[in-house]
UniProtKB/TrEMBL annotation:
<protein>
    <submittedName>
        <fullName>ABC transporter ATPase</fullName>
    </submittedName>
</protein>
<dbReference type="InterPro" id="IPR015853">
    <property type="entry name" value="ABC_transpr_FbpC"/>
</dbReference>
<dbReference type="GO" id="GO:0005524">
    <property type="term" value="F:ATP binding"/>
</dbReference>
<feature type="domain" description="ABC transporter">
    <location>
        <begin position="8"/>
        <end position="239"/>
    </location>
</feature>
<dbReference type="InterPro" id="IPR013611">
    <property type="entry name" value="Transp-assoc_OB_typ2"/>
</dbReference>
<keyword id="KW-1003">Cell membrane</keyword>
<dbReference type="Pfam" id="PF08402">
    <property type="entry name" value="TOBE_2"/>
</dbReference>
<dbReference type="InterPro" id="IPR050093">
    <property type="entry name" value="ABC_SmlMolc_Importer"/>
</dbReference>
<dbReference type="GO" id="GO:0015697">
    <property type="term" value="P:quaternary ammonium group transport"/>
</dbReference>
<dbReference type="InterPro" id="IPR003593">
    <property type="entry name" value="AAA+_ATPase"/>
</dbReference>
<keyword id="KW-0067">ATP-binding</keyword>
<keyword id="KW-0408">Iron</keyword>
<keyword id="KW-0406">Ion transport</keyword>
<dbReference type="InterPro" id="IPR008995">
    <property type="entry name" value="Mo/tungstate-bd_C_term_dom"/>
</dbReference>
<dbReference type="InterPro" id="IPR003439">
    <property type="entry name" value="ABC_transporter-like_ATP-bd"/>
</dbReference>
<dbReference type="InterPro" id="IPR017871">
    <property type="entry name" value="ABC_transporter-like_CS"/>
</dbReference>
<dbReference type="GO" id="GO:0015408">
    <property type="term" value="F:ABC-type ferric iron transporter activity"/>
</dbReference>
Length: 360
């Protein structure tokens, strides 16, 4: 079977500001009814990418395709209003002098009756039936955001570009509006490209995550794959705290204070980093100066002393000063576990949950 044609595709987009490369060879695609999240730290070029797709900014190189048709390269350009792209940005800016209903109807064609029907349908969908004659300033922030959502959805865009659209909302409100927005977009088979710097938001919303750093896409894939098969150390630390142990490879085995780690294909003498998340470090009590016996799945235990323990709600975070030195080790325990400062414990690293990256 042939691969489906993406609703939206960028090919090798490049953008420079004053000679500085801020978007560097970005290729992305989004299928109808799917959400791709462009995830990365502030300033990595996410919004610039979105602005080029929206057509409000020109790329220096590369192409934008919609439904298999070229809409923009460096010569040819379909104007923004003919791209059938909806926009929803953090500063959603409703028109303050227009009533809610007029705001939602703003981009709609058709007869007055058709417009009124569509406005009524959308306001009901976002839980704001009966508010059509209110002015924006009479609504709360969350309600205004829902109006902005209704306005963006009204013309049934085939593509929706969203730039941190929920970041102005408090947590509880945000989850509800986020889920509701996705439901509506999926129902309409809209392709969504969402920009965020929050890994949780990307994990929650995306079918595909494109991890962006310094203008480049460093990894692209399903959230599960990005989380469990990260491309490099920075990709691991973007999603959670990490512990890092250094080692050197001999005969495809990395030697470290925690014992040996398999390092297939890594040349002799190569320095590597073993990266492990706090939830994948195992703890054992000290028994008269002894720890657990080494095993194949967990390797050798190393002793550390508790320096800090905090209860975080669903789990406890314990920090250790390790006998071999280096930065403190962070360990999370899914329970209330608050050992005293100075308590000796033995730490092991789960071999099936750690990542090994060469140090360059
Ligand atoms: N019009 C402009 N002129 C010059 N530099 C710009 C312009 N717009 C953005 N930049 C720079 O380009 C880089 C990428 O900006 P962009 O807004 O795309 O990043 P971002 O990943 O969306 O960040 P944020 O999440 O903070 O919005 C930044 O270093 C920014 O300062």
């Amino acid at each position: 079977m042939q691969d489906p044609i993406p609703r939206l595709e960028t090919r090798n987009l490049v953008r420079r500001y004053d000679g500085r490369l801020v978007v560097d060879d970005v290729s992305l695609s989004v299928l109808p009814g799917q959400v791709t999240c462009l995830l990365g730290p502030s300033g990595c070029g996410k919004s610039t990418t979105l602005r080029m797709i929206a057509g409000v900014e020109m790329q220096d190189a590369g192409e934008i395709w919609v439904d298999g048709k070229l809409v923009c390269d460096t010569v040819y350009r379909v104007p923004p209003e003919r791209r059938h792209i909806g926009l929803m940005f953090q500063d959603f800016a409703l028109f303050p002098h227009l009533r809610v209903g007029e705001n939602v109807a703003f981009g709609l064609g058709g007869t007055a009756d058709e417009k009124a029907a569509r406005v009524g349908e959308l306001l009901e969908r976002v839980g704001l039936s009966g508010y059509d004659r209110n002015f924006p300033h009479e609504l709360s922030g969350g309600e205004q955001q829902r109006v902005a959502l209704a306005r963006a959805l009204a013309p049934r865009p085939s593509i929706m570009l969203m730039d941190e659209p929920f970041s102005g909302l408090d947590n509880r409100l945000r989850d509800g509006i986020r889920d509701q927005t996705l439901d509506i977009l999926r129902e309409q088979d809209t392709a969504v490209l969402l920009v965020t710097h929050e890994p949780e938001e990307a994990m929650r919303m995306a079918d595909t995550i494109a991890l962006m750093r310094d203008g480049r896409i460093v990894q692209q894939g399903a959230p599960y794959n990005i989380y469990n098969a990260p491309a490099d150390r920075a990709a691991v630390s973007f999603f959670s705290d990490v512990n890092v142990v250094r080692g050197t490879v001999h005969g495809a085995l990395a030697e470290t204070p925690f014992g040996q780690f398999l390092a297939p294909g890594v040349p002799n003498g190569q320095a590597v980093e073993i990266v492990v998340r706090p939830q994948h470090v195992k703890l054992d009590f000290d028994r008269a100066g002894k720890g657990p016996v080494p095993t194949i799945s967990d390797g050798t235990a190393v002793r550390g002393e508790v320096r800090r323990a905090r209860f975080m709600g669903g789990e406890s975070l314990v920090e250790f000063e390790m006998e071999f030195g280096g930065p403190r080790f962070k360990v999370t325990v899914p329970a209330v576990f608050l050992p005293k400062n100075g308590t000796p414990m033995w730490l092991t690293i789960r071999r099936d949950k750690c990542f090994i990256f060469p140090v360059h």
